[in-house]
Design brief:
alpha/beta; globular; 18 strands; 34 helices
């Protein structure tokens, strides 16, 4: 069948059960809408508890939602828990921002991409409660907290950080391992013990007491939430005529009466415990990238005991995981229109990590690793992101299984390499056993599950090509004409390439400094306004320290911003050096005038042709170009290494920054704000995404791309070195080509020290057909950046960006 159509029948992985296939279709048929229940219940609790200390006020808000929100149990599900009143509906987090929501209410359903239905009664309720939050939201206070210069960078879009002040943080994995093995009752016991030890005559002790009291409220609320489902399931079982379903509902009632308060005893109980808390955490905060961690490692003992006792078969286990993936795709998030362009496709970035190594360096692949692969392949959904931890000892047999999933054509799995990531974590001071237990978080960024603070990545975005234009324009932003840096010389007056590199160094350091100021202001307001109490309770060592995550409660706390347009920067510098300063075929004035006119006229087009065709390009194993990218990046890395986040010195190991290229879909809107660049890119067009080459610039095959990427200082980019590759489905049909792909990936990681790679397996023809006839391609999933999305929900510009990516040959 054509690669545009989706079949859940797979020649390699088999077919999921009819109930899961039907359940999947039932969920995907639901049109995303906005749910106002959470906003109403939070407003109600906030009004009632305005006099309480902040942690308690936040706890009461979550308690009110979990206690009174609508709950339901779908007919086909074995796992229960819903984020909103309808599956795939996005709750409103009105305490984070109300201005864009009220302004866009009538337009959300008309967007070019990421559309949501907003029922009229929901609009009325939002307009009714919005005045309470006016000038009182996280966004309002965040914008007010920005110093004048930092606010200028933010308003101009030179540094983008809207997500930091319109949403919660997340970007972590909580300690699900402890939850399922000890139960929330252990978290509660430890909290009570710590609370009882406090001498409340001390300021710090009194402050901690509010946190501990808040933790007890949210832990009890989560247990009460589970018991609501237990009661509902029992009630439904009493009225259920089908004997088999009656037994299932009775079992759901039993499980939800037990977990998450008690330790889980079976795989089904463990997955239910995890899912109920995943839902509660998504309700507490609008932060995304809330990930599952290494499911195959911390669930294997449950599976093996069930198998040995005859309680479960491999296929039944696979069905439970398929159920979890369908549940995962019911989670949704609505963003403002500008922010949605940075996160095209409504992603929430729930990541599952499998494989890798054990703390003693042995291969960690187990029976659940393959079951998770199989279940993800059968479902072909956008959630969760699936990451495979690669290492030299990973067997060819498992690698071939991974390639078979890649062949399914929905952009998974992504590969992260232990060979570069574990040493980089050890260099940061992460303990060996923790470094070997890292997992992917959200896209390609990495952290230690259950021990890492918020936003391992996803802080502010810095537009590298726009910064280069500022460096060429004596410190003035070309797009707006506003001076954003001190004088650094104008390009037309430069007589050698080193002058430009000095100007770049000056500008990118100032951009970096301002990005840190923006980050700190956002973090301060998040700490003061919307701490996440349940999430903090489930991360070590918040309970031991009596601090929530924003105060420094985690064991580790390292964060990164995101750098956009790396390939454009490299190609621009290479073109300038060769054509202007080495070969002198263009004068500085000629190039600057061509850029200023967006290559208008015959002379402009001639110059653009030279830049596109005659200048060397990143992604082709041309050492001089790749080293230019690395050199330019070093200015940023050196500068960001000077700064500390707001948790530094407050408990965690770290409190520092590192780099990250996981730019999600930001390359598209960041390009919209960027004038013509010296690589030949026309004004307002998308930038290159991640650390991938510019579209069509990589002409020497995938090995050359891998070599170019490996010349970046990857060991310092712990926030993720995101590399997208694209091949046609036909390319992977021959068995020998699939083996070639295995060897290619091994070469990238073993010899070239690669960090990450992922594959889109879809033809240009299919994507063009999906643009023309979206109704026929509802299930077409593509890799956008560090995540997958349904192609037809993307904006036209994002779709075009994916279509333009280079199709590699093996």
């Amino acid at each position: 069948m054509g690669d545009g159509a989706v079949s859940l029948v797979n020649e390699y992985f088999g077919t999921s059960t009819k109930r899961m296939r039907d359940y999947r279709e039932e969920v995907l048929a639901i049109e995303p809408q906005v749910c106002v229940e959470r906003a109403v219940l939070v407003t109600e609790a906030h009004r009632r508890h305005r006099n309480e200390q902040l942690p308690l006020r936040r706890a009461y808000c979550l308690q009110n939602v979990l206690r009174h929100m609508s709950i339901f149990i779908e007919r086909r599900t074995l796992l229960v828990g819903n984020q909103a009143s309808v599956n795939r509906a996005a709750p409103v987090f009105i305490e984070y921002a109300e201005d864009w929501l009220t302004e866009e209410l009538d337009d959300i359903g008309k967007r070019d991409g990421d559309r949501f239905v907003v029922p009229e009664d929901a609009k009325a309720r939002i307009r009714e409660i919005a005045p309470y939050w006016k000038n009182n939201t996280l966004k309002d206070k965040g914008l007010a907290a920005f110093p004048e210069t930092a606010r200028m960078f933010y308003d101009l879009g030179v540094i983008k950080s809207e997500g930091n002040i319109t949403a919660g943080d997340a970007h972590l994995a909580v300690n699900y391992n402890r939850v399922i093995h000890a139960g929330l009752k252990d978290f509660r016991r430890r909290t009570v013990e710590e609370l009882e030890k406090l001498d409340l005559t001390g300021f710090e002790a009194l402050k901690k007491s509010y946190f501990y009291r808040a933790v007890l409220i949210v832990l009890d609320a989560a247990v009460e939430f589970a018991k609501r489902y237990s009661a509902l399931a029992a009630s439904m079982a009493g009225a259920e005529p089908d004997a088999a379903r009656k037994r299932e509902l009775a079992e759901i009632a039993r499980i939800c009466a037990k977990v998450p308060f008690e330790p889980a005893g079976t795989l089904h109980e463990a997955l239910q415990s995890i899912w109920l808390l995943q839902v509660a955490l998504q309700i507490e905060s609008s932060g995304h990238s809330l990930s599952y961690g290494r499911l195959d490692q911390y669930l294997i003992d449950f599976y093996e005991r069930d198998l040995e006792a005859g309680r479960i078969t491999e296929e039944q286990a696979c069905e439970l995981f398929e159920n979890l993936w369908i549940k995962s795709v019911t989670i949704n998030k609505i963003r403002s229109f500008p922010q949605s362009r940075f996160n095209a496709g409504n992603p929430v970035y729930q990541n599952v990590t499998i494989a890798g190594q054990t703390p003693d360096g042995r291969d960690a692949v187990n029976a659940l690793s393959s079951i998770i692969l199989k279940s993800v392949a059968r479902m072909r959904l956008t959630q969760p992101n699936l990451t495979v931890r690669y290492h030299r000892g990973l067997s060819d047999a498992f690698m071939r299984e991974c390639v078979e999933v890649i062949r399914c054509g929905f952009g998974m799995p992504a590969f992260n390499s232990d060979e570069i990531i574990i040493p980089s974590l050890l260099a940061l001071g992460v303990k060996r056993e923790d470094a070997y237990d890292y997992s992917a978080i959200g896209c390609v960024e990495v952290a230690v599950p259950g021990k890492w603070g918020y936003r391992v990545t996803g802080m502010s975005f810095i537009n590298f090509p726009r910064a280069l234009l500022v460096a060429m324009n004596d410190g003035v932003d070309v797009t707006t004409g506003v001076r954003v840096c001190g004088a650094c010389g104008h390009f037309v007056d430069m007589t050698d390439f080193e002058q430009l590199m000095r100007a770049w160094d000056t500008v990118v350091r100032e951009f970096t400094r301002q990005s840190v100021i923006v980050d700190i202001a956002a973090d301060l307001v998040l700490e003061q306004e919307v701490p996440d109490i349940l999430c903090s309770a489930l991360v070590d060592d918040c309970i031991a320290r009596g601090k929530h995550l924003k105060e420094g409660g985690a064991v580790y706390d390292f964060i990164s911003g995101l750098q956009v347009g790396i390939a454009n920067l490299a190609d621009s510098l290479a073109a300038i050096r060769k054509l202007v300063f080495v070969e002198k075929r263009l004068s500085t004035r000629e190039l600057w005038d061509a850029l200023s006119s967006d290559f208008a006229g015959g002379d402009g087009e001639r110059i653009r042709g030279m830049l596109l065709r005659e200048a060397p390009k990143y992604g082709n194993d041309i050492e001089e170009v790749d080293l230019l990218a690395a050199r330019a990046y070093e200015s940023y890395l050196d500068e960001i290494g000077r700064y500390r986040n707001t948790r530094y010195g407050r408990g965690p190991i770290g409190g520092t920054y590192f780099a990250g290229t996981s730019s999600v879909s930001a390359n598209v809107p960041q390009g919209v704000g960027t004038a013509a660049t010296p690589d030949g890119r026309k004004a307002w067009q998308p930038l290159a995404e991640g650390c991938s080459p510019s579209h069509g610039a990589d002409t020497r095959g995938p090995t050359a791309v891998f070599t170019s990427v490996s010349r970046l200082p990857v060991e310092k980019i712990t926030g993720g070195v995101l590399l997208n590759q694209k091949v046609t489905p036909q390319m992977l049909e021959p068995r020998e080509n699939r083996q070639k792909l295995v060897q290619l990936i091994r070469t990238f990681f073993d010899r070239l020290r690669g960090f990450h790679v992922q594959y889109n397996v879809v033809s240009r023809e299919t994507l063009l057909a999906a643009q023309q006839h979206p109704e026929e391609y509802r299930d077409l999933v593509v890799r956008v950046a560090g995540y997958s999305a349904f192609f037809t929900v993307l904006s036209r510009m994002t779709q075009d960006d994916i279509i333009a990516r280079t199709e590699q040959r093996l």
